Each structure stands twice: as C-alpha cells, then as structure tokens.
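The following block was generated as part of the benchmark described in Methods. Ligand: zinc ion.
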Amino acid sequence: MSWQQLDSILKEQAAEAEYYRTQPPVACPRDGTPLLEGPPGQPGILYCPMGDFQYPRDWDPDTMAGM
Ligand SMILES: [Zn+2]
C-alpha cells in the first residue's frame, strides 16, 4: 500500500465520521429506544419515549454520534 492510498483512506474515514456527526440520532443513545418526533409545532425535535433523552438538547456528537 502506498502512502497516497493510506492518505486517501484516512480522508475517507474522516469524511464518514463527520457525516455521522451531523446526522440526528434515530434511537436513544442511552437505552436504544427509537426516538419519536415532536412535539407538534417544533420541527427538528426528537425525544425518547422513556423520557431520558431529547434531541438536540441532550445530543453530544463526541460521545453519541454513529449510534
Ligand atoms: Zn431513552
């Protein structure tokens, strides 16, 4: 493997990690319950029906992204 190939792989992985950081979660990072949308009139809010997580309020991409 050449240095050029290695460099391009590292750049791809960084781009992929950045992509996942910008994606909202689909499931609660704490218990894995699928998140629900709401409340009405507040687009972009996702919440866990168990009541322990709300996006983006409780979202920490450093520890939760990619889940
Ligand atoms: Zn939860």
